[in-house]
Write a structure and sequence with these properties.
Blueprint (H helix, E strand, L loop, with lengths): L9 E7 L8 E7 L5 E6 L1 H11 L5 H13 L8 E4 L5 H11 L4 H4 L2 E4 H8 L9 H10 L4 H4 L12 H18 L1
Parallel strand pairs: 1-4, 4-5
Antiparallel strand pairs: 1-2, 2-3
Helix pairs in contact: 1-8, 2-3, 2-8
């Protein structure tokens, strides 16, 4: 495989603060060679509710995959390769994304890699995700009032809530039963 992982059509996804950390979490994507980015914020309160009601602390990879799903579902035409930062178990995240997009032929054509795989391919051990700083901006600012979001780079947030995550959590659970 001799791909140029610096070209257009590559999307990086990263988190700012891990899902298990007791603070807000930002998850964002950035397209390489473009200023296009989108992100979301998970408040500590929302994470605690998910842990309490879904036992989410036993499967943070599922939450990560659900958030990625909502981030990219309307932007599948923007990329060919998806590079996911390995903040959670990447094999589980890939599997959950495959389940969530099981009815989507566009997603099935995409190549999904972890940042670790990309480092191996490129030989650059210090390679960082292009979405690293963007995710940090979303973590710090997306949950604030609109007026307080206006400093720094303009944000393109998507709204995510408890019900949206629960619906996809249950969808994954049901589809996993079908595969057994």
């Amino acid at each position: 495989m001799n791909k140029n992982f610096n070209r257009d059509g590559i999307m990086h996804i990263d988190t700012s603060s891990k899902l298990y950390e007791r603070k807000n979490t930002g998850i964002a994507y950035k397209l390489i060679k473009s200023n296009k980015h989108k992100g979301l914020g998970l408040s500590l309160k929302l994470k605690k509710e998910l842990e309490r009601d879904l036992n989410a602390n036993s499967d943070y990879a599922r939450i990560y995959a659900i958030c990625i799903y909502y981030l990219i579902k309307n932007d599948l035409d923007l990329f060919d390769t998806l590079i996911i930062c390995g903040d959670e178990n990447i094999n589980l995240v890939k599997n959950y994304l495959r389940i969530l997009f099981s009815d989507n032929k566009d997603y099935q054509k995409k190549e999904v890699k972890s940042i670790y795989e990309l480092r191996k391919i490129t030989g650059n051990k210090g390679l960082k995700s292009y979405a690293d700083n963007i995710a940090s901006s979303y973590r710090k600012r997306v949950l604030k009032s609109v007026q307080r979001q206006q400093t720094g780079i303009p944000l393109n947030p998507i709204k995510i809530n408890y019900r949206m995550i629960c619906n996809k959590w249950k969808e994954i659970k049901e589809k996993m039963k079908e595969y057994e």
